[in-house]
Amino acid sequence: MDSTGTASRPSPTAADPPVPHPRVAGQRPGTGDRSEPRAARGDDSPPTSAGLTSAGLTSAGTVFAGPASASPASAGLAAAALVGRSEERALVESLVADLSSGRGGAIWLEGEPGIGKSSLVDALLARASAAGCQVFRGRAEELTQPFPLRPLADGLGASHRSADPQRRAIARLLAGTVVEQDVIDPVVAGAEKIIDLVDQLCAAGPVVLAVEDLHWADVPSLSVWYRLDRLVDQLPLLLVGTARPVPRRPEVERLKEVLRDRDGVVQVVGALDEAAVTELTAQLLSARPGPRLSAQLARAGGNPLYVRELVDALRRDGSLRADGGEMESDLPQDFSDIPESLGAAIGRRLGFLEESTRSLLRLAALLGEEFTVQDLTRVADRPAAALQTSLADALAAGVLAETGARLAFRHGLIRQTLSAEIPGSLRHALHNQIARSLARSGAGIGPVARHLMAAEGTVDAWAIDWAVTLPVAAMFVAPQVGVDVLNRLIHSGLDERQREVLEARLATVLFWTGDSLRAAEVAAGVLRFAKDPEVRGRMYLYRLRSASQHGDNGPALTVAEKAFAEDGLSEAWRARIRAWSAITLIKVGREDEAMRRARVAMAEGGRSGDPVAIGYAHHVLSHLADSATALVHISAALAVPNTDPDSTELRLILLTNRLAHLNNLGRRDEFDATFQETLRFSVKTGTKRTGRVQIAGAMGYYDFGEWDEALLHVGSLQPPMAPALRMAAHGLAALIAGHQEDWARLRAEVEAGRDIGVTTGDVRIYSGYLVAAQAIRAEADGDPTRAVELLTTWLDPGIGHDGRERYMWLPDLVRVALTIGDRDTAQGAARAARDDAGHPDAIIRQLLAADLCEAQLADDAPELVRVAGDFERHGWTMARSFALEEAALRLALAGDAAQARVLLSDAVRGYAAANASWDLRRADSRLRAAGIRRGPRSLRRRETTGWGSLTPAEQRVVDLVAQGHSNADIAAQLFTSPRTVQTHVSHVLAKLSLRSRIEIMREAGART
C-alpha cells in the first residue's frame, strides 16, 4: 500500500456561446474567426503583423482565412475530389445524413500518400457544413508527435486569444507558460477539457471533427480520439480520421481495430482505375488525354496526386499540345525523363521556382507542415514585405496553400523534399536559430524544444539559461520532451548551480509523471553535490517515497535517517520526510513508532509554518485511528491550501481516504457528497488518481447495495489502469454479475481478471471480489465444496495486511461450510473474523462480521436479527438481508414458521431491490427445504429494459438531456463528473434501445 491506502478500502450562456470554427462552405467574406491562430501548438506570439493572399500582402495586415476545411494536400483538386469515388461518395452522404438526424459515427480513411484521403475529407466537411453541421479539422505531424494533444486542440481552435473561455483554458494548459492552480498533470486535464468542449459543441448542434494523419498522432491524442469514439453513440458527433498504412504503430492499429469492433467504418482508399484517371486528367486539362499521354499517366499507379504532378510537369515543360479534341504529349511514350517517382515529380515542380523562393521555402520546411508569416520572418531575419514576392510565387505554384491564419505546404512530401535539400550541419544550425528565436518570443516548451532537440551538437548558453528560468510546471505539458531536453542540457557544459537546478528539475518531472524509480536515481545523484537545502530536502523525499512505493521499506527508512542527520536541512523538509517515513513504519507494523514520528512532524510543521507538512502528519495519524477520529484528522489536513503538486496530491489522497472511512462508518449521505466532490476535483486536476477515486466510490456503492451505481463508476474507468484498479474493476463487476445471475458477464470478467498477476497489497486484497464471484458460480453449479475451497484462501495464517477486507467473505464461508458439514472450516472462519475484530483499529464492519459468524455457528437467531439491525442502521442493505436470511433459516428449523416467513420476506425485498436474483433464489431454496414458503409471489424481478428499468439517477439524466443540456452541463447540475454522465447516457440508450440523444429527447418529450 502506498500512502493512498485506505482504512478499508457552468452551462454556456447566451453571452458566451460555444465558438465554432469557420465553416467549410457558405461562409460569407469577413465572417471567419480570424482572431484565432492555431495557438495550441504553443504559439504565444501576438497576431501576425503581415499576411498574404495569392495576390500578395493584404492591406489589413492579417491573413484572410480561407475555408476552414480546405486541406493543403487537396489544393487545386477540389473539382476532382470525388472522381472515381462513387462508393466513398455514397458513404459520405450516408454519414452526413445520419449526423444531421442526430446519430453520430466514426470513419477511418486509410491509404497511401496522395491517394485522396484529404480530398475525401474536404468533400465530407463541405457536405456536412452545407447541412448545417459544425466542422473542425486538425492534423498530426511527425515533428509534433512528442507534444500531446496538439492535433485536437489545434483543430478545435484553442487559443490564448479565443473569445471562448474553454478554448483559452486548453491553450493555457498545453502551452505550459501559465501555471494552473490545482493542476497536477496538464495533459490529463487538457484531455478532459477537450472532451468537454466537444460535448458542449454537440449540445449546440451536430459536429464533425476530422483529425488527419493519425499515424503521427501522440498517444494522448489517440486516447482522446478513443474516448470520443465511445461518445458517438450518444452525441451528434462524427469522427473522421485519416492515416497511412505505414508507419505501423501498435497504438494506432489498436485504435483502428477498436473503431471497427464498435461498428465504425474503416475505408481503404485505393488507386483510381484507368477510367477515373482519364476523367481526372480531363478535368485538370479541360480535355481528354490522348493515347500517348494516357500511357505516360499509367505510371502514376492510380494515385491522384501523382497524376496531377505528372500533368503539371509535362505542362510546365511545354510538352503538351492539343490534338483534335484531345490533349496529347509530344514526348515519346517511353521518354526517360518522365519522373519515375512522386518525389521526382515534386522536384520538377520546385525546379520552376526562383532560387531565392526555394531558399526561403527550405527555411519554412523546418517550421513544419504549417507556419505563420511571423515565424518565417523571425527565422529568415527579414521583414514581411521582403517575403511578399517569394511567398506569392510559392502560392501561385501550388507549393503553399493558405489555411486560415497560417500557410501550409500543399503536401507533406513537398516539405520533406525541401528539408532534405538542406545540408545536415546547416540544418542543425537553423534549428538552433529557430529555437532561440521562439524562446525569446516567450513561446512554450513545445515549439522551442522541438527545434532545440533537432539541433545536434554543442548546446549554446542561451538554451541553458532558458531551461533554468522556465517554470518547472511547463515541463509537465510534454513530460517526455522535458526529460529529453533536460538530459541533453545536463550533459552539456554547466556550472554547478545550473546542474543542480536542472538535475533537480529532472527528478521532479520524472517523479510527478510516474517514473519514481528513475526519479530516485536522479535524486541520489543530485544529493552527491547539491548545496541548496530546499533541493536536498525534495530529493530525499523523492528517494524515500519511491522506495516505499515499491515495497523497499528498509531502504526507505535508511534514506529518512540520512536526511535527519543533515544539519542544514530545513525544519519544513524534516517534517515532510518524517511524516512520509511514518507511513513506511505503518507498513512494517511499527505503529507506535509511526505515531510518535507523526506527532514530531506535526510540531516541526507548526514551527516552520509549513501547512503541507502539517497535512502530511494528520494523514499519518488518520491511519492510526478509528474511522471517526480519522475523519477529524482528515478534515484538519484538508485545510491545507492548494498551491503546488504536493498540496494538491495530498488533498486527493485525503478525500479518497475520507470516502473509505465514511463507508466504514455507514454515513451514506456524506459518502455521496464526498465522492462527487473528490471525483470532480480529480478530473479538474488532471490526475491519474481519478481511477482510484472511481474504484473507492464503486466499492462503497457495492456495500450500500447500490449496484447500478457501483457498475456505473466501474464502467467510467478509463485505460490505462494500474493492476490493482483493474483487479478491483473486474472483481466488482464479476461479483455483481454473479449475484444477478449474469453468468456470461461473470465469465468474461473472471477471465479478464485472471490475466492480472496476483501478488501482494491491493492487487491481492481486491482479488477477493473475483474469488467470491467464482464461489457463487461454484454454488450455482451445485459444487459447494469448491466454493469452500475458494473462500478458504482468506484463512491463510500468514495473510496479514492482504486480508484486511476478508470480513466481507468470512460470513459466506461460514454459511457454505456449514451447508456441507465442514464445521472445522466454519469455526476457523469465525476465529479469523474475531481476530480481526480484536485489532485496536477494527472497523464496524469487522466487528459486525465477527458477531455474525459467531451467531451463525451458535444458531443464535435473535443475535442474527440484532446484527441485521446494525447493518440496517449503517445502510449496508445486502449484509442486512443476508443476516435476516440466516436468522429466518434458524427460526424455521426451530419451528417458528410465522416469524421465519416474516424475516424471509424482509430479506428477499432487499435482494430484489438490488436485482440479486441468485441470493433471492438461494434464500427461497434454503427456507423451502426447512418448510417455509413465502406464499404468493408479490415480488417480481426488476425490469431490465424500457423506461421502467431506469434508475432514479438515470431518469434525472434523461430529464436534463431532454432539455438539451450537454454532459458537462448535466454534470455541473448533478454535482458529478462528465464521465459519470456519459456512462449514464450510454446505459439509458442501451435500456431504451435508442441510438442517440436526439432520440432520447424525442421519446422523453412524447411521454410528457
UniProtKB/TrEMBL annotation:
<keyword id="KW-0547">Nucleotide-binding</keyword>
<dbReference type="GO" id="GO:0003677">
    <property type="term" value="F:DNA binding"/>
</dbReference>
<dbReference type="GO" id="GO:0005524">
    <property type="term" value="F:ATP binding"/>
</dbReference>
<dbReference type="InterPro" id="IPR036388">
    <property type="entry name" value="WH-like_DNA-bd_sf"/>
</dbReference>
<keyword id="KW-0067">ATP-binding</keyword>
<dbReference type="InterPro" id="IPR000792">
    <property type="entry name" value="Tscrpt_reg_LuxR_C"/>
</dbReference>
<dbReference type="InterPro" id="IPR041664">
    <property type="entry name" value="AAA_16"/>
</dbReference>
<dbReference type="InterPro" id="IPR027417">
    <property type="entry name" value="P-loop_NTPase"/>
</dbReference>
<feature type="region of interest" description="Disordered">
    <location>
        <begin position="1"/>
        <end position="55"/>
    </location>
</feature>
<feature type="compositionally biased region" description="Polar residues">
    <location>
        <begin position="46"/>
        <end position="55"/>
    </location>
</feature>
<dbReference type="GO" id="GO:0006355">
    <property type="term" value="P:regulation of DNA-templated transcription"/>
</dbReference>
<dbReference type="Pfam" id="PF00196">
    <property type="entry name" value="GerE"/>
</dbReference>
<feature type="domain" description="HTH luxR-type">
    <location>
        <begin position="943"/>
        <end position="1008"/>
    </location>
</feature>
<feature type="compositionally biased region" description="Basic and acidic residues">
    <location>
        <begin position="31"/>
        <end position="44"/>
    </location>
</feature>
<dbReference type="InterPro" id="IPR016032">
    <property type="entry name" value="Sig_transdc_resp-reg_C-effctor"/>
</dbReference>
<dbReference type="GO" id="GO:0005737">
    <property type="term" value="C:cytoplasm"/>
</dbReference>
<feature type="compositionally biased region" description="Polar residues">
    <location>
        <begin position="1"/>
        <end position="11"/>
    </location>
</feature>
<dbReference type="Pfam" id="PF13191">
    <property type="entry name" value="AAA_16"/>
</dbReference>
<dbReference type="GO" id="GO:0004016">
    <property type="term" value="F:adenylate cyclase activity"/>
</dbReference>
<protein>
    <submittedName>
        <fullName>LuxR family transcriptional regulator</fullName>
    </submittedName>
</protein>
